[in-house]
Design a protein that fits this description.
This protein is of the alpha/beta class and about 270 residues long. Helices cover about 45% and strands about 15% of the residues. The protein has one domain: Rossmann fold (3-Layer(aba) Sandwich), CATH 3.40.50.1820. A hairpin with a 5-residue loop joins strand 1 and strand 2.
Length: about 270
């Protein structure tokens, strides 16, 4: 484990000699541990860099103000600088995917290929309704109620039933490690303010838009719109798995990810 100058906690997993680098950026929860189901499969082929988002996990618990998705993209650059990476692939889930899109626009040469998992180019009414509900839980009932409701937005119903003991154990950990209310509110507000729908054509990178058809939080139509607006995008739709199908269906997701990333990463100019 290492830290950037401003206090972002990151880890480098070296992988094979001379392997290309992949930066993993998680969703709203912010924890690098979210990518545990991907580490072995990706680590066989890539140098991996994972990190806890600013304000979460082991990283500094304060945000940069005013906070935005661009701030999250700037943090990816800071992590890359600290890890000695001139450029890298970025794999981002939801908030991490939005940060990758912002990075593509603000620091194009730092990015090789981008994977956006269950992301969007502009907030959808359903996404806004879900986040308004989560904010109400947070404000009216506190972190414990927010964390207890979290699986409803992340996982399919059957998976929740079959993994009740695991989720109960994780809930206690997430409550104990919950960011401050100010940080969580600011992160949600930043996601709802993100809108690059009219700038997608400026992104010249190859992008994999990966989505789950049964995502409760981000409607599939958001991924379809995102892929349609990007000049060099491919869209992969998993039939099942929920918002966090990287966790519920990791083998299928990992296979999709490796197919996209293991081609020649330097064929596209920008």
């Amino acid at each position: 484990m290492a830290r950037t100058p401003s206090g972002l906690c990151y880890e480098v997993h070296e992988g094979p000699a001379h392997a290309p680098a992949v930066v993993l950026s998680s969703g709203l929860g912010g924890s690098a541990a979210f990518w545990s189901p991907q580490m072995v499969a990706l680590g066989a082929h890539f140098r991996l860099v994972s990190y806890d988002h600013r304000g979460t996990g082991r990283s500094v618990r304060d945000l940069t103000w005013p906070h935005s998705v661009q701030s999250m993209a700037d943090d990816i650059v800071e992590v890359m600088d600290a890890a000695g990476l001139a450029s890298a692939h970025v794999v981002g889930h939801a908030a991490g995917g939005l940060a990758g899109l912002a990075l593509a626009l603000s620091a194009a040469k730092r990015l090789d290929r981008l994977v956006v998992v269950n992301g969007w180019a502009a907030p959808d009414p359903h996404i806004r309704r879900c986040f308004d509900t989560r904010l109400s839980l947070l404000n009216d009932s506190g972190p414990r109620a927010y964390v207890h409701a979290q699986p409803l937005f992340l996982y399919p119903a059957n998976w929740i039933s079959e993994n009740a003991a695991r989720l109960a154990a994780e809930e206690a950990h997430h409550v104990a490690d919950f960011p401050s209310l100010e940080v969580m509110r600011a992160r949600i507000v930043a996601l709802l303010a993100f809108d690059i729908a009219d700038r997608l054509s400026d992104i010249a990178h190859r992008v994999l838009v990966a989505a789950s058809a049964d995502d409760m939080l981000v409607p599939l139509l958001c991924s379809r719109r995102l892929a349609a607006g990007l000049p060099k995008a491919s869209l992969e739709i998993a039939p099942w798995g929920g918002h966090a199908y990287t966790v519920t269906a990791p083998d299928d997701f990992n296979a999709t990810l490796l197919r996209f990333l293991r081609d020649d990463p330097r064929t596209d100019g920008y």
